[in-house]
Hints:
Two copies of one chain form a homodimer. By secondary structure, chain A is of the alpha/beta class.
Amino acid sequence: MLPTNTAERLCKIYGILQMIKKDSGYVSSKELASMMGTTDFTIRKDISALNLVSFGRRGYHIGELSSVLGKALQLSRPYRSCIVGLGRLGSALLDYESFRGDGFDIVAGFDSNINKIERIRTQIAVYPVSELDQVVKNKSIEVGIIAVPHNSAQEVATTLVKSGVKGILNFSPAQIKVPSEVVLYNMDFTSALRFVVSQI
Amino acid sequence: MLPTNTAERLCKIYGILQMIKKDSGYVSSKELASMMGTTDFTIRKDISALNLVSFGRRGYHIGELSSVLGKALQLSRPYRSCIVGLGRLGSALLDYESFRGDGFDIVAGFDSNINKIERIRTQIAVYPVSELDQVVKNKSIEVGIIAVPHNSAQEVATTLVKSGVKGILNFSPAQIKVPSEVVLYNMDFTSALRFVVSQI
DNA sequence: AGGTGTGAAAATTTTCACAGCA
DNA sequence: TGCTGTGAAAATTTTCACACCT
């Protein structure tokens, strides 16, 4: 499997390719590097992990690179996802434009507050969190996005895992634990802000 | 300066310490490791970078470790911050509980839409983005949080830097560029979600 | 000329084993 | 005994130089 850092950078590259797809058909490692704040040889090394055929003096063909990357990162099909916790952050995510049409099918939202569920205006089906288990199974949801307060995050994660979710994106500041076969990625805003300050 | 990974982990540790401060006075490297999903020697190595005096057989004294970490990471004083872009995400961040009382002073919000500014109900002062430069200078804001759409992110970043901000937390999917002396940390939700899927 | 691919060197990060301390 | 601190080994990641392609 790809090294973690390489996979992370390739995801970024993939995102950039989607954005510049309309532009001219080729992009060089140097251009990508400057967009991402790395060096050209890092980009080449990362991409070389994909066993791509060489392209000569014009750089990478955007369409081809994009499709190879999509395959390598398993991004070529949409993933069925759900958001748990429809507070301010959760409902912002529910309608987050970038998820839409970007290979992520947000097919359900959950909240513990029944009143909130009735009030929410969105295209996406919303359920009480008590039905989490059942809906995840029925809809074959593969990815869970956690946006609940930190004191219920672990419980939600456990339920998601039990119901068959294979990946979790955790927006709560809680340090949740999942079995090693489940992929977990933390987006802890406070830690991130602390990191910024610590590097100043 | 601390290695990047170490600094990131120390920020996490600091966050955990804040959470468990009420509990018993000591915590071991093993306990921290299990909460963070690393190993005990990684924790010890990280902490040893801080030149702490040894504590013997009970582990680290939470209060003392917390204070040493606070100093090392420069988290012992509040940082004046602002949020640019008060869409769904931005306004969620504006009232994000965890920032409050956690060493971050969100002192201003900005949006380009005057109507939105008038509608927003918050304790924090909000301004049209045209006053960004001026307000950042007047209030000596040190950290900027970007939550605008990706097509205006670079412009906002440039203004923030010109106005004297030293660190930026970027929530937009744009790959923005800043001078090397300015700290930039990207929280790109779509990249994160892609990364989760790629590791499944 | 202007780009990629890659083996080898350098640098960094993680892991380990164990001395030392209360 | 139960934990930390740390030098040294191992593993990984980044950097570099340059062959090679069109």
